[in-house]
Design brief:
Length: 447
Amino acid sequence: MRAAAGGRSAIRPFLERGPLGAGLLGLASGFPFAMIGATLTTRLAEAGVEKRTVTAFALAFLLYNLKFLWAPAIDRVRIPLLASAIGPRRAWLVVLVTAVMAAVAWLGAVDPQADLSRVVAATLLVGFLGASLDVVIDAFRIEHLSAGQLGAGSGMSQYGWRLGAAGAGALALVVAERLGWPAAYAAATVFALPALVAAAWLGEPARPDPPPPSRRTSVWAHVREAFIAPVADFLARPAGAVVLLFILVHKLGDTLANLSLRLLLSDLGFTKDEVAAFDVGLGLLATLAGIFAGGVLYGRLGMMPSVLVALVLMAVSNLSFAGLALMGHSNLALAAAVGFENFASGIGGVAIVAYLSWLCNLRFTATQYALLSALASVLGRIVSGTTAGALIEALGFPAFYLLTTALALPGVGLFVWLMRKEAQGPALPDCHGKRGKLSHDGPRAVG
């Protein structure tokens, strides 16, 4: 009986209105990413496009790292008529969902063999609109969730994202086999519709009025209010600079390890079937289990302790890759390493996304979350693209993964310091309250 009651208690936060809505939003967020990812790669390869050109299309994902540049428009600009009718956040959501669906349909209609330049244009448009949709979805999610729901809401958002990306990609392949690529891309747009369901179900989120426009009309005044004020809000908080430094470095070791894993598997002689079964199949199951565990951990320990646990697990998971490199071609070692790493990443995704969400000032939600999420990934991607290969060649895989573990330690140390200033983060007594300790002026000051 106690076990059953404990199970229901663990699941209950995921079934509340806010987290379920976050899951629906996640479905829509993952779909455009899949359309310019593996799905487009398959289509271009089928069309006979050379490999170097196919891989160059991955540059479209840089738009997701640059979304903070136009996120202020989503925070500050009201869409005429529609914003007055349904609210500014929902107006942006409706417009961007419609635009993404149209752009994906256009991408499917363009023939790579006839006009590759139009495929490039359509891909960039889908990337830009998908990143923009992420901005408004993240803001919508953060503004709807109470402090106590941030963990479960972050977990449901990630469940939705992964299911949306996998479902849209799978649907596109099935339809393309029978009806062709234009019909496949058009069919996949159905995965954008859950965001509209969430908007209708959750309603317009409550948020403070945007900062009043400056009396000065200079370009500098608009730049300061849209771009500088959200960053200045962070830096004005006690230890705000330390928080930004933590966000910048905390995923460096994890990113280096993950982006090099396929190189290790190739070097150890794992077959494509083995990679598909363990890195893709088992990895996905382990991630989904980790997301659930992360939500439970957040509810039991609170945000700050659960983030620390996640950081330690993510650092230790890099050691499992070093062990795999030493053991060689072993399916058991591969299953253990991939399973542990993905489980730790699932926990980390929930706890760290909740932490980044809590840090956002509701006056600048879209801008600040776009900036924080970009900051969290940019350093690892730059280092991976410029030096990871040379480090692997110079050190060998076992020593390289030991290095990635060491690179994770500064993030752990910074967060331990931050925990001494803010031991628990938001209070979690009422999952239906609007923010716990998080007010319209941002989280309680760290320091």
